[in-house]
Amino acid sequence: MVNDNADKLVRDNFWELPLEQLTRTEWEQLCDGCARCCLKKLQDDNTPADATKQTAPAIRFTRVVCRYLNQSRCSCKAYQDRQIKVPDCLVLDMENLPQSLYWIPDTCAYKLRYLGKPLPQWHPLLTGSRSAMEELGIPVTGRVLSEQYVHDDGLEEHVIRWVKA
Ligand code: SF4
Q1: What is the pLDDT of residues 6-36, one digit of tens each?
Q2: Closest to 99 in 3D by CA, of 86, 109, 108, 90
Q3: Phi, psi (degrees; rounded to nearest 5) at 90
Q4: Which atom of ligand 1 is nearest to the CA of 32?
Q5: pTM above the 0.70 mark?
Q6: Chain centroid to CA 71: how far?
Q7: Are 142 and 129 within 8 A, CB to CB?
C-alpha cells in the first residue's frame, strides 16, 4: 500500500525498496513514461475451456493507442479525468497490481519491481534522462495509431511484437 503519510517524501534509491514501502510521490516517479500500458490489447480467445482463475489469458498488444494519449510526450491528455473518460483505465496500485501482471508490459517498472527485479539500465531514474530509453525505442512515440482511426473489429491487423506482457 502506498504510504500516504509521507506524501512528498522521495528517498535516495527509493526504486530499490519494496513497492509497498514507497510514498505516493515515489510510486508516481517509478513510472518511466513509456505509455506501453496505453496500447489496446487483444485477449487470446483460445484460453483452454478448463482454465482456472489462476490461468491468465494470453495478451497480444496492438499499435493502437488510447485517444487521450499525447503521443509525442507519452503523457495522458485527460490524466485527472481519465477514469471518467475511460472507465477501464486502471490506476495502478498495490492492490490491483498482482491481478494485472498478465497484461502489464514486461518492461514496466511496477511489474519488474513487484517481481523483485531491478529497474532496467535505461530507466530515467538511473540515467537522469529519457535519452537511453528513447534510443532503445521503449516509448511508443512514432510507432502508434490513435484508436480514433481504428474500429475495434480491425485491431487484429495492428498486432505488434515489440511489446509483450
Ligand atoms: S507501462 Fe508501466 S512504466 Fe510504462 S507508462 Fe505504463 S505504468 Fe508507466
Answers
A1: 556 899 999 999 999 999 999 999 999 999 9
A2: 90
A3: -90, 130
A4: 3
A5: yes
A6: 15
A7: no
